Amino acid sequence: MAKLSPDGLGGISRCSVPSRLLIAEDDEALRQMLRWEFEEMGYRVITASTCIEALSSIAGHQVDLALLDYNLPDGIGMDLLRALRKGVPDLPVVIYSGRATRGKADESSKYGASRFIAKPVAASSLHAIFQHLLPTAKPTSEPKA
Questions:
Q1: Given this model, what pLDDT does residue 135 score?
Q2: Which residue from 86, 61, 64, 84 is spatially nearest to 72, judged by alpha carbons?
Q3: What's the pLDDT tens digit per position in 24-54?
Q4: For the chain, how long is the longest CA-to-CA vector?
Q5: Contact criterion met (CB below 8 Å) for 20 and 43
Q6: 69-114 pLDDT, tens per residue?
Q7: 41, HSE (Cβ side, Cα atoms, 13 Å)
Q8: How far apart are CA 130 and CA 38, in angstroms?
């Protein structure tokens, strides 16, 4: 039986500043499981099952990073990536797929995805990737007297 760490996360660090994460995943059970796991890690999660739903869900909201399924019912992750890039050119985006191929990985890179990953992937592994993609907090300068 696995031991849980005192924080209940199995040694996974929580986000010190809650990051706003968009998850676009058409598999309802997977989408909900990812939402629960990332919320437990301290993320503020917005979920969507389609490209259109993802775009409408974040309208008027800032997101810090996105996790996009490659195959969505109304398009592919690249369609959504391009639309997200129009509004936030430097948004870290991870695309993942249950049918990962070298061609999809190359296409993802070509369109500016930060990473392309094959499913299945553990939320803890995604969290580690997100931590590398998020900009680090810069120390604030002391006001001059």
A1: 76
A2: 84
A3: 999 999 999 999 999 999 999 999 999 999 9
A4: 59
A5: yes
A6: 999 999 999 999 999 988 889 999 999 999 988 999 999 999 999 9
A7: 24
A8: 11
3-state helix, strand, coil in the chain (%, to 5): 35, 20, 45
Report pLDDT for 114.
95
CA 85 – CA 7 distance, rounded (Å): 35
- CB proximity list for 31: less than 8 A, separation 6 or greater: 23, 25, 47, 49
C-alpha–C-alpha distance, residues 145 and 81, integer Å: 46
Domains of the chain listed by start with CATH number: 20-133 (3.40.50.2300)
- CA 41 to the chain's CA centroid: 13
Q: Which residues pair with 46 in a beta bridge?
A: 22
